Amino acid sequence: MSEVQRRRWLVWTVVGVVVAVALVVGAPWVYARFLAREAPDPLALSTPTTSAEAQVLTGRLEIDGTWLVGEGSEAGYRLGEVLSGEQTTVVGRTEGVTGTVIVNGGMLDEATIVVDAGSISTDAGARDAYFRRALDTSSFPEARFELTEPVDISALGRADVPLSVTAVGTLTLHGVSQPATAVLDVQRTAGGVEVAGQIPITLTDFGLTAPDLGWVVVEPTGAIEVRLVLGL
To answer: What is the Cα–Cα distance from 218 to 203, expressed in whole angstroms?
Structure first.
């Protein structure tokens, strides 16, 4: 190999190494900056789409009884993430939600909401796989919220606007149970009752460590989101 050829080979080797490093370091930044999907809005109450639906909200509603979580319900999580210096929001969702709500004399006396944690998904399969490993969903497949204090929702029976309440209970996640407070909006619908809101969480409270891989750092606090469609 001539001196000129050796120099060319050295130059192209250096260029190749620089390009490879740029791809490894820069790819997450490019994804976060240009390719990552915008996070969906928090789960919220629906808006009546017709005058007939709006009219339903003005009559009196008998709210006592046993309400079941039905089709159209969703739950998941919302966490902040820094990906190669770019702030992003990670949102996972599932329709695998079941539960029962019992109202007596206008008081929400009992409520148990169960989420299939293993079915929660985001826009990235690798992240979902990590999420399932971190939560050990094979051993702890469910996340659960159980009400521990009654909530007065008697005004819902005659309200024509959403009712805001707080629900104190126990959240079980990753096999760990902790006190939790859900901040909720409740409204009547043409089919029954709808509930939407969040439960703030700190990952370490549930034996979970926020990932810190250098180029991706997950914030240690976030929220569980729910939107429940209830019917008698």
So the answer is: 10
